[in-house]
Each structure stands twice: as structure tokens, then as C-alpha cells.
Amino acid sequence: MDKFTFISQFFPLFGILGLLAIGGWIFTTWLRIKNGYPLENSWGKPIYPKINDEMVERVKLITQENAQLRAELGSIKDRLATVERIVTDDSHRLTQEIEALRLPKN
């Protein structure tokens, strides 16, 4: 068996393995970009995207929205605590409190 025959027999296998390796690299790079992981250069150091005004504005808006959602969550927790107190309270005391609220105060 000469060298040319050996190479010609295994060339398709080497080609397929090379294409699979390149496809895997493209897929993992796409996953990193999609999920927000920093890309890496050939030495393994992360390549961070350049910060521009649009990104800074997006971070500000997300921070404001986060603060609003936290405030809303706090008010919902307070309301839930009130509902839990009403539900777990015995009915006699609850009836007395409701009647006390109905009576006009002098």
C-alpha cells in the first residue's frame, strides 16, 4: 500500500472531522454570545464588548425597572401578609374587627 492510496482512503474522514470541529467551534461561540458569556481570544483571555452609550442607557433602564419591580414585590408581600392574617385568624375576632370598623366613631 503506497502513501497516495492511504491518503486517498482516509481523506474523506479527515475532511469530515475537520468540518465537525469547525462546526462545533461555531456552535459554542454562538451559545456564548446568546447567553452573554464573554468571548475569548486565542490565549484564553476574555474579549469584552466595547461599552457604548446605548449599552449604558440600557443598563440604566434595567436598573430602574429592577427598582420598580422590587418596590412592587414589597407591596405584594405586605398585601399577602394581610391576607394570610385574615385567613388564619379565628372568625370571632375577625367579625369583631369588621363590626368595629362599621360603627361610627364619636
The fraction of residues in strands falls at under 5%
Return the average pLDDT rounded to an integer.
84
Tell me the overall shape. elongated
Strand order of the largest sheet: 1-2
Helical content (DSSP H or I, runs of 4+): over 70%
Distance between the termini: 113 Å
Helix/strand-derived category reads mainly alpha
How many strands, which pairing sense, and closed or not: the largest β-sheet?
2 strands, antiparallel
Instruction: Provide the low-confidence segments as ranges.
Output: none
Topology order in helix (H) and strand (E) letters: HEEHH
Give the count of helical stretches.
3
Number of separate domains: 2
Query: Care to count the β-strands?
Result: 2
Radius of gyration: 33 Å
Characterization of the model:
Helix content is 76%, strand content 4%. It has two domains: 1-49; 58-106. It has helices at 3-35, 53-88, 91-102; strands spanning 39-40, 46-47. The chain has a two-stranded antiparallel sheet. It is built from three helices and two strands. The chain is mainly alpha-helical. The protein is elongated and about 110 Å long.
